[in-house]
C-alpha cells in the first residue's frame, strides 16, 4: 500500500505517535494487558487518530501484520524445529562444549558472538537468532549467570550484520540509492560491523549482564528424564555433523546471493539451474531443506518418526505467542508507516540544514523511531537524501559508503515496541517489556551509535 497523505501538521502527527507509544507501554507494563491485545488495540486507535478512512483500516492493519508474518512465521517455525532437533539430539550441547573447549569458559560469550557474526553474512537477523537459540541456551545453562551475558553478543551480532553488511537488503538498497558500489560497502562495512559489535554489543553485554539477571528460559522444552538424557548421550551427533547442519542454510542462502549477483551483473544468464539455486536459496526453503536433513541425520537416531513428529509438534506450541506478538508489532509499525508519520518526521529533520553525514543518521533515526522497521528506515532515508548526495560534488566511494553506514546506524538505534525484532527478542528470551527496553533497546542504541561514530571518521578522514 502507498502511504496516506498526513491528516495533520507534522507536530500533531508526531504527538499522536508519541502518545500511541506511551499508551502502549502503559497498557503492557502497568495494566498488564497481554502484549498481542495491546498492540492490536493501539494499532486500531492510532489509525483512527490519524484519520485513516474507516473502510481502509482493515487493509492498513493487515499491511504490517501480514507482511511481518510473511517474513517471520516460516523462519521462526522452521528455526525452532531445527533448534528442537539440535537440542534433543544433544547436538547443541556438543557444539557448546566444543566452543567452550576452544575458547575457554570466560570467553564463551565472545565465541558465541564470533560464530554469529560469521553466520550473519547471508542469514537475516530473525532466522539466525532462531537457529542459534539452542546453542545460546545450552551455553547459558552450562555456565549459569544472566542469560544476557550469552544472548546479547549473539543477537547483537546478527543485528549488526543485518543492518550494515551486504548482501542484506537494507544496506544493498541504500547503496543503490546513493550510488555506492556494493563491493566497497561489503569491504568497508564488514570491519565496521565487527568493530561496532565489539564496542557496542559485546562490551555492553559484559556490563549489563552483571547488573541485570535474566533466567535461562525453557522455550525449547528441555527435559530431566534420565532415559531421554541417556539416549542423547548414546546417539549424540558429532561436532562436524552439527556444524554441517548449521552451515547448510548458510551455503544455500549464499548460493542464492551469488547467483543473483552474477545474473544482475550479466555474468551468467537465467537458466534452469540458476532458477533452482535461487529457489533453494530462499531463506524459508533453505530452512525447510535443513529441517528435513536434520530429521534424517539426527532426529531419527534412536527415535521413530512418530517420536520425531511429536517433538516437532511440541516445539511449535510455545512459539505461537511469539509469532502473533511479532506480527502485531509489525501491524503497529505498519500503521505508523502508512499514516505518513515517518514521512512527516523525515521532512522536518531534512529542513534542519545539518551536515550530510549527520542528516543521514538523524533522518534514519527518526524513521526508525517512528515506524520500527530497520529495513524500511534504511531504504526510505537513503531515498530522501539521495538528491542531496547527487548535488554534492567530490564524493568518493568511501564517502558514499560512510553515508550508507550512517543511515544503517540510525536505522539500528532505539528499537522499541513498534519493532517486530523487539518482540522477537523479548519473547524468545522471556524478558518483560521493561527489561527488554533496558537491555535490548539500549544495546541496539550503543551498536548504532558506535557505527555512526565510525562513519563520521570515514567521512572526515578518508
Give the SSE layout.
Layout: H1 10-30, H2 35-49, H3 57-89, H4 91-103, H5 108-119, H6 125-143, H7 148-164, H8 169-178, H9 182-211, H10 226-235, H11 239-264, H12 272-280, H13 283-299, H14 305-316, H15 320-338, H16 341-350, H17 356-371, H18 374-391, H19 397-410, H20 420-428, H21 433-461
**Strand content range:** under 5%
Provide the succession of SSEs: HHHHHHHHHHHHHHHHHHHHH
Amount of helix: over 70%
Average pLDDT reading = 82
Q: Which descriptor suits the 3D outline?
A: globular
Architecture overview:
The chain is an all-alpha fold and 462 residues long. It has a domain at 66-178 and 191-214 and 225-250 and 282-320. Helix content is 78%, strand content 0%. It has helices spanning 10-30, 35-49, 57-89, 91-103, 108-119, 125-143, 148-164, 169-178, 182-211, 226-235, 239-264, 272-280, 283-299, 305-316, 320-338, 341-350, 356-371, 374-391, 397-410, 420-428, 433-461. Helix 5 (108-119) runs antiparallel to helix 6, helix 15 (320-338) packs antiparallel against helix 20 and helix 20 packs across helix 21. It is globular and about 65 Å long. The model has no long low-confidence stretch (mean pLDDT 82).
